[in-house]
């Protein structure tokens, strides 16, 4: 039996995440694993407000993200991989660490190190370090 | 061209995933209390007490009943579309472009000025806190002109600065998580309960007579006074309660759970509000609030001499209000984004910064306007405009669901308001009564805002609407 059967890659358009995609697709090819591409539209429930005014924005971002994923899907298919893509709306940290991997029985998560700095790092924190701490699957961080 | 051209509902549902039903009655109740208990009670009780005397407690009850009926109607409205969206988008589908534009335009006013209102209260508590530790900001820079009779003030510098600071945070994509939000709810609730427990002993019952010095509705020194006008003012304290209403699609058995969630969250917050109001008007005679308009709770704590408590309350209020400003400004930039995407506003407001994933330009545009409003306009004017905006939106929604029951009886509805047509009718009556209780200057200002909106609509939006291409 091969080590990893279901590999998830977090995509956000940054250059580390592009590298994560390349590594993920090479690994999937080598291991004959299925590739899952996920681009999360971050929605913090703490920002919800009257008359649901934020929802349209999330819906649009999700559509844009889904379109961007199509390029990656095409590339993966060229390699002959079995691939699935999703652009869910939700708390980026919990979707990447728990929700999506559990739902799809992911056994390896690959993320680019987003390299937040300064204030954003203090207030938002890094997605990759959260996923390392909370996820049940193995995690590979691409620098 | 059709003024009431509608968006196709299938466009909206194309890419949406259905929500999981997880919420039960108590989840909804906590959600509602969290959204309600915010800033109104910290900011507007002073003005309310001056308007109605101790009978302000009755005003809170009236405002709560209004919210109950409006909340049920909004719940049906929000559940007509099977996906999460905004009131603006739903009305684009249900009622057509013109009404959608009016609701969007109305919400822009509500959001911008609610943020400005809260920033004024934030400033009131900050100035008080700084005073108690011996730091003094020049009086002229602590409030907008005409805030306190007899005190010369020019510009509310702290309010101006906090709005700009938060605008910057939002523009670079900093959000608040659910956990921070829940913590803030507990801080705010804690402050309210601590205040009640510590000050109830100082109530002097003689301050409660006369209980209702201005009756139901009267005029005093050129402004509306009495229980109804005070209800129109403190309606602000309940804004946000409709977050329960928009959760129909995430609620288990919504037809039973949702009304209960609305009822319980309104009931609990109203009991707290009434308790607080009775204490506040019992500890000091209501005219004392004249000097504490931006930070009314401090009127009580200065009277009881509990400096330690006043510091705790100030810190709690400041923290709680900071997050409210954050949420309001965020919503503000998102509603103008939606309108821009549909071509009703220029592209400027819809441009998303690729790095931060935020509508960067729109955020700054409205942030700066809000900051200036918070600096220059006094609390009474700001809060009344927010209320008239929200009440108008609820009136439109309530009328809308009645009309939709008539025109499209078979449409999918995740939740049906009980007692139609009485519930929407009562909702409309209460909203109109509360609008009537506001000062006439507010009606004029709001009318000007709407006329301005119609000029934008007929001068720009109609020609640029994305619907033209369809």
Explained architecture:
Chain A: Belongs to the universal stress protein A family. Chain A: It comes from Ligilactobacillus salitolerans. Chain A: Residues 4-143 form the UspA domain. Chain A: This is Universal stress protein UspA. The complex is a heterodimer of chains A (143) and B (470). Chain A has helices at residues 15-31, 55-78, 92-104, 118-124, 127-134; strands spanning 6-10, 34-38, 41-42, 83-86, 89-90, 108-112, 138-142. With 143 residues, chain A is α/β, with parallel strands linked by helices. Chain A has one domain: HUPs (Rossmann fold). Chain A has a five-stranded parallel β-sheet with strand order 4-2-1-6-7, sandwiched between helices. In chain A, strands 3-5 form a two-stranded parallel ribbon. Chain A is globular, with a radius of gyration of 15 Å. Chain A starts with 5 loop residues before the first strand and ends with a strand. The model of chain A has no long low-confidence stretch (mean pLDDT 84). Chain B has helices at 9-13, 25-36, 40-43, 45-52, 56-80, 87-94, 97-132, 157-171, 178-199, 227-234, 242-245, 254-283, 297-304, 307-341, 360-376, 379-407, 422-437, 440-464, and strands spanning 218-220, 223-225. Chain B has a two-stranded antiparallel sheet. The longest helix of chain B is centred in the first third of the chain and has 36 residues, at 97-132. The mean pLDDT of chain B is 88. Classes of the chains: A alpha/beta (143), B mainly alpha (470). The interface between A and B is large, with 29 and 49 residues.
Assembly level: heterodimer
Strand content of chain A: 15-25%
- Order of strands, main sheet of chain A, comes to 4-2-1-6-7
From the spread of the alpha carbons, the general shape of chain B counts as: globular
Kindly give the count of domains of chain A.
Answer: 1
Residue windows where pLDDT falls under 50 for at least 5 positions of chain B: none
Protein name (chain A): Universal stress protein UspA
Family (chain A): Belongs to the universal stress protein A family.
Domain UspA (chain A): 4-143
Pfam families (chain A): Usp
